[in-house]
């Protein structure tokens, strides 16, 4: 079997190669990649280059290995050990021996096929199309876990603020609304702010004041956004630090911040014991979220997809298999 795959050479250059696939390793599964979404974190690999095939928001169909052929699944990114005390409790995102992430330290989904450990394949229910299921990884799975953690810190949340309406920020808005939380949103990009409003958020007003929100979810990773979150959170409130960047996360050395009693929550991905609850969320709002943010493209169009993604023209480009004419057709 031959398979096409992308290579990130660095400085924004993407090349393609055709390889001959060998046997599937024991305990692994070979997936035909039906959909692989672009993520903001992939931009770092686009610039730095990667020794492995990138792409970590993967949905596909089993074509060989340790699971029945034809099984539809999404790929759980952390290659968890499955045996430590955290994994035994279902908290696989907290694996004590985690060393690899799919698409980062081992080959990912910007390819026609990908081999992953069988334990990292999450079977997709029959009533959920892969184009929706793949949003259950970073976009909805990460957002839902972060909100669940944050809600443990509060007796109630009057209104939350989401700073940054990129793919994950819009996922936070959609999940928060599904959980019954009123949401304001801020983003300097008017189109993304409009998308947040379409999901039920209210555009935020003046954020120059202090003590405005019980919960602030910072999703951009920009220093200005982090400073805003730390300024507008109320005493006793919660700042959720979801945004990633190469800059250190710092806390301001100001009298106001030193006198502010609050929680700072950092979460990573989601545990497998939340997957069923995430399917329920996707059944409620997954299709509408997909239809609002996803732009389907094929693997040869990956350089264009990234160029338009970096420019802000596309919110959530998805590479779909060549025989899928639209992302909504990736259903079986």
TrEMBL record:
Residues 26-126 form the Alcohol dehydrogenase-like N-terminal domain. Its cofactor is Zn(2+). SUPFAM superfamilies: GroES-like, NAD(P)-binding Rossmann-fold domains. Residues 167-257 form the Alcohol dehydrogenase-like C-terminal domain. One of its GO terms (molecular function) is oxidoreductase activity. The keyword Nucleus does not apply. InterPro entries: ADH-like_C, ADH-like_N, GroES-like_sf, NAD(P)-bd_dom_sf, Zn_alcohol_dh. It holds the Pfam family ADH_zinc_N. Keywords: Oxidoreductase. It comes from the Bacteria. PANTHER family: L-THREONINE 3-DEHYDROGENASE (PTHR43401). This is Alcohol dehydrogenase catalytic domain-containing protein. It comes from Micromonospora terminaliae.
